[in-house]
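Form 7-S
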Amino acid sequence: MANQAANEKPKLRLGDQLIESGLISQDQLKIALLEQKATNNALGKVLVKLGFVTEEVVRDVLGTSLGQESVDLENIVIDSDVLDLFTETMCRQMHALPISLDQDKHLVVALADTFDVITLDKIKAKVGRHIEVVAKLASENQIQSAIDRFYGFGLSIDGILQEIETGQVDFKEFRGDD
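Output:
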C-alpha cells in the first residue's frame, strides 16, 4: 500500500500544471498569485484577465486534472427541443446550458462549475428522475455567449419563419425592449 502511494504522482495545482505544460512562466504565475491575493478571485480567472492564457486553456487543464470532460461551445449546434428544457433566465442564473439529450435519457449540460451540487440538483429537479444529467466543463464566457447565440436575438426558427411570413421584424426583440 505504501509503495502504491509512493508511485502515484501528486496532483499539481493549476499554476504548476500550466508551468509544466509550458503555457505560462514562473514569473507570470507569481504575478497572477499576487493579483489573486489582492482581488480574491480564482487563479484561472486572474490568469485569463491578465491575458496569460485563454479561458479554453484553463477549462481544458482543469478538466483534465479533475477528471472532467470539457466541451467547446463555439462550434456546436443544439436542437431546439433541448433548449426548451430550460428558459434563458434559468440558464443564465445557473451558468449552465443544455447541449444534448440522447435516446438513453442522458442530458448533457455544459457547466462552469461541474461540482456545483445546488445547480446540479436544480437541473435534476427540472428534468425529472428518469433523465441522467451528464455535466461537462465549459468556460463561463463560452456559456454566456452560447446562451446569447441560442436563446437571444430572436434567432429561433419560429421567429424567423414568422418574420418571413409577415414581412415584419420585431425590433423590440433585438433591442431587448419589453
